[in-house]
Amino acid sequence: MMLKKAALIGFAGLALGVAPASANSIGNGSTVALTMIGGGGLMSIGCMAVALLTQDDEGEEEEGYDRRGFFVGLSGSYARENFSDSSVVNLVDGELQENLRLLRGTPVLPSPPGDPGVYTFNFGDIDSDTFGFNGRGGYRCHPYVSAELQFESLANFDGSIMERGTPSNDTARGFDLELETLVFTTNVKGHLLTGRYQPFVLLGMGFMRMESKARDYTSGTIIPGKAAQASERTVNVALRYGAGLDFYLTKSVVVSAEGSYLMPTGKLDGMDYYQFGVGLQYRF
Q1: All structural domains of the chain
Q2: Please, what is the average pLDDT of the chain?
Q3: CA gyration radius for the chain?
Q4: pLDDT digits (tens, 9 = 90+) for 56-106
Q5: Which end of the chain has the least Cβ crowding within 10 Å, N or C?
Q6: How many helices (H) and strands (E) does the chain have?
Q7: Is the backbone peptide bond immediately before 110 cis, with ω within 30 degrees of 0?
Q8: pLDDT tens profile 215-233
Q9: Cβ distance 79 to 273 under 8 Å?
Q10: Spatial separation of the C-alpha atoms in residues 21 and 184, rounded to whole Å
């Protein structure tokens, strides 16, 4: 019986890693696969080992707030950006920047000597809050340890771009900049207490997908299908760390409050943000 339970825990933990990795449409398939299979696999092995090493007598039912078992949860999210200006400039390049250059309009001809006829871009500060939701599912494999997969989707962080003309055409154009964020992480939670009130800390690893979109607003009202616009999608490994409090309304229904900090890497390095969430969990 104990081996069956351990096998179930192991397969469930591995599924937490494999399922998101199979969705290559999310972004960079290799990044997603390596991160989630690696994180989910390690989480699975660790949680299975903890459950086996600390399992009580099978004849004793665990009915307390700290009992082992699966859980699911859903929360609302509030996010506050902590982006660096240089990271925004680094993010809005490549395909997106080239598309913006193609939207610049026709320069005045002939161009004077030394005038490349290319516009430069000034990136306005992004000072934005946004909202979204997150869901999670996992297994409490010890009174003080849980392992979980967390998914988070946020509405747009908003900013602006101003295009500056060349000497041959000094007409400036403005663009709205929108950054849409999607995050998957595998987390390990440490429960500091095991009663009705359970403060916790967590550490997670996964990936962040950020889609940057820009559209021309110089002409005033945006007409769907007519406005000049461009977009680019970036995916990189991300780390999450945070803390929170679980309050048990019953032995199965939990109100959970959490604050965490997201730190992506690679091209998204510096696109950090704070996340705060409140929601409900159900313990099976």
Answers
A1: 70-283 (2.40.160.20)
A2: 75
A3: 24
A4: 644 445 678 999 899 999 999 999 999 887 787 777 666 676 666 665 544
A5: N
A6: 4, 9
A7: yes
A8: 766 554 444 444 456 778 8
A9: yes
A10: 10
